[in-house]
Design a protein that fits this description.
The complex is a heterodimer of chains A (about 130) and B (about 375). By secondary structure, chain A is an alpha/beta fold. Helices cover about 40% and strands about 35% of the residues of chain A. Chain A has a 6-stranded mixed β-sheet, with helices on one face. Chain B is elongated, with a radius of gyration of 22 Å.
Chain lengths: ~130, ~375
């Protein structure tokens, strides 16, 4: 799959994919009017990636996220988690970045990590 | 116009009675700096006014009003001085095409008399007199600091066409407030003092009862985006350590209003939202029109969620997250309510009121420890 980048808007995060490292990045704020409509294409792209590669990284660097987005982003994470279960030899990983003073995003990352089985790295940013 | 009802904490004042004649109100009470100007202008020009020319004029009046607070307001706090913040009050009230801008800022008592004399003198001038005064101040470089009537005030008077009033009130032994009300009509050159609202009472609601932020009016996603920029700024200024939690609860409650409330013919949803600071808590209050069926479901959910321990709540949250998702539906179930409970760590209050044949008011309130 080719590289792509969806620019950040007032209510949606930047989403990009770098094919060289098979890395997806979600960065910014996420409270779109219709979270399903925004995240569904990303979910489908990840399905494509999973079909063609056994090494995928999802990197999240989110500042604010509303409850509808939480559900969608978790669904995307869970898709990779399902693939990790199917193919334990594959290299699938989630990197969850949060600011050092942002307890809410830290907790959210921690909760996701507890539910998911694939490698999940919590990265604090000063 | 829908009639909401909302009694403030620590008082018997019903804000909505105070705002009964107003279709739309944005009230900000707290700390101001220049960076708040842009989001407010964006909110005003994009959601409050259709006429571009009037929009520019109104923007100008708002910018000058903000400058009055930021440049001439008195704030003794060393922390605020370092952060270049000034304590102030701003409200914009709108009904039809008629708009009233209310601002208040602090001033040292010793400067009140001089400022009052200066404002009274300027207010007595006609259009030509104000223009002459403007040129005079500009050319003589008489720009005043900290409480004097400067160019901004002259400009407000010129643009407002004399349609403004002002008064002073004591804040303490050393400090007073100076209050300005500017009247504006989108469609006419003649601005008339239209709003019957008791602006003294409005300030009592805003300042004395620590209403930090209030919006009454029609809600949709666009206004939410504009308001979120304003609120994010205020959250950062007011509650650095709680700003994320404050902002988070704001997002969930406002989105709740326009995603689940009953809408009018234009598709927008009438609602009320405010944040009050009282007794070491931030109180959040949202209200919207709802079908009785939806309100009853929400109340049952909230009553159930309130009974859960934090461990049970987390368990339910994880269960909801792992449920099969349906991308054709833009719903998050009760995850939003669970998120608010997790963030606030306090029970949600839900009230159904003014039930008619097919609708009611649904009120959701929650407090956050400061």
């Amino acid at each position: 799959m080719e590289d792509f980048k969806i620019k950040q808007t007032e209510d949606t995060p930047e989403i990009s994919f770098v094919s060289a490292s098979n890395t997806y990045l979600i960065k910014g704020k996420s409270f779109p009017e219709d979270a399903s409509e925004f995240y569904y294409p990303i979910y489908k792209k990840l399905e494509e990636s999973i079909a063609s590669s056994d090494k995928i990284i999802l990197e999240s660097d989110l500042e604010y996220i509303n409850s509808s987005s939480v559900k969608m982003i978790f669904a995307i994470f869970n898709l990779l988690n399902t693939q990790h279960r199917k193919n334990p030899k594959g290299e699938y990983k989630i990197i969850w970045k949060f600011k050092s003073n942002d307890k809410l995003m830290e907790n959210k990352g921690q909760e996701f990590k507890e539910i998911l089985e694939l490698p999940f790295e919590l990265v604090v940013q000063v | 116009m829908y009639t909401f009802n909302a009694i403030l904490m620590n008082t018997n004042i019903d804000i909505i009675q105070v705002l009964a004649d107003v279709e739309d109100c944005l009230l900000i009470n707290g700390y101001f700096d220049d960076s708040l100007t842009d989001p407010i202008i964006s909110y005003v020009t994009e959601s409050q006014i259709d006429n571009k020319k009037s929009g520019r004029k109104l923007s100008f009046l708002i910018v000058e009003s903000f400058q009055n607070i930021v440049r001439h307001g008195y704030d003794a706090s060393e922390a605020n001085k370092r952060a270049k913040l000034k304590e102030g009050f701003f409200a914009m009230l709108k009904t039809g095409t008629e708009i009233t801008i209310c601002t208040s800022n602090s001033i040292e008592n010793e400067k009140v008399e001089k400022l009052e004399d200066e404002i009274t003198r300027l207010a007595s001038l006609d259009k030509a007199g104000l223009k002459s005064e403007f040129i005079d101040v500009l050319s003589a470089n008489k720009y005043t600091e900290g409480g004097g009537a400067g160019l901004g005030l002259i400009e407000i008077m010129r643009k407002a066409g004399g349609q403004f009033d002002y008064y002073f009130s004591k804040k303490g032994n050393d400090i007073s407030y100076v209050h300005f009300n500017i009247f504006f009509n989108e469609n006419t050159k003649e601005h008339v003092k239209v709003h019957k609202i008791d602006k003294v009472k409005l300030r009592e609601v805003g300042i004395d009862n620590n209403i930090l932020f209030l919006r009454k009016g029609l809600f949709n996603h666009d206004t939410f985006i504009q308001l979120s920029t304003v609120l994010e700024h205020e959250a950062n200024s007011h509650a650095q350590t709680h700003s994320t939690s404050l902002y988070y609860i704001f997002i969930e409650l406002i989105q709740n209003i326009y995603k689940h409330g009953l809408s009018d013919e234009s598709g927008d949803t009438p609602g009320l939202f405010y944040i009050q600071e009282y007794d070491d808590y931030f109180y959040f209050h949202s209200q919207n029109l709802s079908s009785i069926e939806n309100a009853t479901i929400v109340k049952k959910r909230i009553d159930h969620l309130n009974e859960l321990s934090s461990k049970e709540l987390l368990s339910l949250y994880k269960e909801r997250l792992t449920q099969q998702i349906d991308f054709s539906k833009n719903i998050s179930g009760d995850i939003g309510l669970i998120e608010i409970l997790k963030v606030s760590q306090n029970p949600l209050k839900c009230k159904i009121s003014d039930v008619s044949n097919d609708s009611c008011f649904l009120t959701i309130s929650v407090k956050l420890s400061i």
